[in-house]
Amino acid sequence: MRSYGTVPTALKSDHAYNFCEVIMRVRRNIAMFLFMALVILSFGFSGIAVADARHGQQYSERWCSQCHGVQLGQASPDAKAPSFPELAAKPSTTRHSLTVSLQTTPHWTMPKIKPKSADLNDVVSYILTLRTRH
């Protein structure tokens, strides 16, 4: 077998070190990516996991029923305010659209309350349960 020369020992070890370093960086980046994805997903879906539609119904009956029909077959006392079953029946209604709407749409006649995030999430869950029963 023909020899093309020898590689100095210092270059061999540097090359091996660089390769190992690259592998370790790739592993570290993959681990960091998976960790961040897990964190983002857990925060993104945490509200969904703890939503309580029953509490949302109770909250709606107390605070929303003055203007909105909150139960199936119940007309809204205020003709300008859609009933919850009407909202649920719209194809464009999603958890996200309801949450954004409830946080940004002005309710001029609404009592001066600031719903907690959990209460808002519960009301959204309740409205979405009316979709399947409507």
Write up what this structure looks like.
This protein has helices spanning 9-50, 53-63, 84-89, 95-104, 117-133. The protein has 134 residues and is an all-alpha fold. The chain folds into two domains: 1-50; 51-133, Cupredoxins -  blue copper proteins (Immunoglobulin-like, Sandwich). The radius of gyration is 28 Å and the shape is elongated. The mean pLDDT is 81.
Secondary-structure blueprint:
Blueprint: H1 9-50, H2 53-63, H3 84-89, H4 95-104, H5 117-133
Helix pairs in contact: 2-5, 4-5
Q: What would CATH call the architecture of the largest domain? A: Sandwich
By secondary-structure content and strand pairing, the structural class works out as mainly alpha
Enumerate the spans where pLDDT stays under 50 for 5 or more consecutive residues. none
**Form type:** elongated
CATH topology label of the largest domain: Immunoglobulin-like
**Which quaternary structure do these chains form?**
single chain
Give the overall pLDDT as a whole number: 81
Rg? 28 Å
Query: Mind telling me the CATH superfamily name of the largest domain?
Result: Cupredoxins -  blue copper proteins
Number of domains: 2
H and E order: HHHHH
Question: Beta-strand percentage?
Answer: under 5%
Number of helices: 5
Distance between the termini: 83 Å
Largest sheet: none
What is the class of the largest domain in the CATH system? Mainly Beta
Query: Helix proportion of residues, in percent?
Result: 55-70%
Number of strand elements:
0
